């Protein structure tokens, strides 16, 4: 599949996708390839990501990375289901993703503010000015939540937790999701914040592993748009929730296994006790430097209050990955969803 390209080194290897630094005709590029043919859903998201980047107006490239080539398959309509797919992006030389910078301890307060200002310009003054297709929580959020609850109730690892009336998470007894969610679904304030809010073009997977920064002549670049369920348009609170969840350390720690977890499925209240890793360089750095306050404030200024939507979307984001992650991350995501839902006022 990569016959025409010489691989220099992998940038990220994933279950479905690889991101590779390659050379084609003597020029360096970044190739993203979907190599699993048996995952229709990952395939759909891959195609959407490619389409999203190609269809962005020129005024947004940059800050978004540009696509420079793709396999024949992607140009067919619909793309064939029995072939691997790939596309090539420009190589963002001199840019490093912010997570890597944090891991090196390379982000001071003034740098953090600069990154945020650049993000505010890219998003608030750029991307979020584009009208998006209508977003209906009813079409995306609730069906995903329902499917995952059904999955959990029948999953060997999760069933004792998913079927219990309440869980004990870090010493607190919390009502389980099937008990709390029905009232949430019919909440009018939530509907206002989620369905009645303007729908704009979103990044969809907005967190600091998909934001690259260049310290010399400061600039940012955005990569990897479109969320796991294929969402790329909707209310700004969708991006806000994911962004805040990474900044809090939670999403980062889940993604990179930077946590400890003990669990006990027995009894009336199955137990989950967890803590984030104490010695992780990214987590420690995140506590010392504010990489979010300015961006979140600008988002809130644009949207007004979104607390209810943040809660539900946090539950949704945690649950959406449950069927796609192994233990113990799978259980921790479920427990985090329960914990978050319990904060619904
Ligand atoms: N065009 C690019 N130039 C340089 N580095 C890139 C580029 N695209 C991605 N990367 C690096 O590779 C990582 C993974 O790419 P990404 O598109 O986010 O893949 P994934 O979907 O696997 O998260 C990014 O976090 C970034 O560090
Ligand atoms: Mg990424």
Commentary on this structure:
- There is one protein chain.
- The protein has helices at residues 40-55, 72-75, 98-103, 109-123, 141-153, 159-162, 177-185, 188-194, 236-247, 250-256, 281-288, 293-303, 307-320, 329-341; strands spanning 6-13, 17-24, 27-34, 67-70, 85-90, 96-97, 166-169, 172-175, 200-201, 211-214, 219-222, 233-234, 259-264, 271-276.
- The chain folds into two domains: 6-91, 2-Layer Sandwich (Phosphorylase Kinase, domain 1); 97-341, Alpha-Beta Complex (Aminoglycoside 3'-phosphotransferase, Chain: A, domain 2), CATH 3.90.1200.
- The termini are far apart.
- The protein has 345 residues and is α+β, with helices and mostly antiparallel strands.
- α9 (236-247) crosses α13 (307-320).
Attached small molecules: adenosine-5'-diphosphate, magnesium ion
Oligomer: single chain
> Biggest sheet: strands side by side, in what order?
1-2-3-5-4
- For the secondary structure, the number of strands is 14
Structurally, the number of domains stands at: 2
Order of helices and strands: EEEHEHEEHHHHEEHHEEEEHHEEHHHH
**DSSP strand content:** 15-25%
Biggest sheet details: 5 strands, antiparallel
Structural class: alpha+beta
Total helical elements: 14
Write down the overall mean pLDDT. Answer: 95
Using the coordinates shown, work out and report the CATH topology of the largest domain. Answer: Aminoglycoside 3'-phosphotransferase, Chain: A, domain 2
Low-confidence segments, ≥5 residues, pLDDT <50? none
> What is the CATH C level class of the largest domain, in words?
Alpha Beta
Radius of gyration from the alpha-carbon trace, in angstroms: 20 Å
């Amino acid at each position: 599949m990569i016959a025409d390209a010489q691989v220099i080194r992998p940038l990220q290897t994933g279950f479905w996708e690889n991101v590779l630094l390659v050379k084609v005709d003597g020029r360096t590029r970044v190739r993203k390839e979907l190599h699993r043919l048996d995952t229709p859903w990952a395939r759909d998201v891959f195609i959407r990501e490619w389409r999203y980047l190609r269809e962005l107006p020129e005024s947004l490239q940059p800050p978004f990375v540009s696509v420079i080539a793709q396999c024949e398959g992607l140009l067919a309509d619909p793309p064939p289901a029995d072939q691997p797919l790939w596309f090539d992006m420009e190589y963002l030389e001199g840019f490093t993703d912010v997570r890597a910078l944090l891991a090196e301890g390379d982000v001071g307060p003034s740098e953090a503010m600069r990154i945020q200002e650049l993000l505010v310009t890219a998003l608030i003054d750029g991307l979020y000015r584009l009208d998006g297709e209508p977003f209906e929580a009813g079409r995306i959020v609730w069906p995903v939540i329902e499917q995952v609850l059904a999955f959990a109730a029948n999953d060997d690892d999760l069933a004792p937790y998913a079927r219990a009336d309440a869980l004990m998470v870090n010493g607190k007894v919390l009502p389980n999701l099937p008990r709390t969610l029905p009232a949430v679904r019919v909440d009018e304030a939530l509907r206002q914040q989620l369905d009645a809010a303007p729908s704009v073009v979103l990044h969809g997977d907005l967190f600091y592993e998909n934001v690259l920064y260049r310290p010399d002549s400061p600039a940012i670049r955005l990569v990897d748009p479109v969320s796991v369920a294929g969402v790329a348009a909707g209310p700004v609170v969708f991006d806000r929730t994911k962004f805040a969840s990474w900044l809090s350390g939670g999403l980062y720690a889940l993604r990179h296994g930077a946590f400890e977890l003990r669990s006990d499925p027995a009894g009336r209240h199955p137990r989950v006790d967890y803590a984030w890793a104490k010695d992780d360089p990214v987590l420690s750095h995140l506590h010392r430097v504010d990489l979010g306050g300015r961006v979140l404030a600008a988002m809130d200024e644009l949207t007004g209050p979104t607390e209810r939507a943040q809660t539900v979307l946090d539950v949704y984001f945690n649950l959406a990955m449950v069927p796609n992650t192994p233990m113990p991350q799978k259980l921790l995501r479920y427990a985090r969803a329960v914990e978050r839902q319990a904060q619904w006022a």
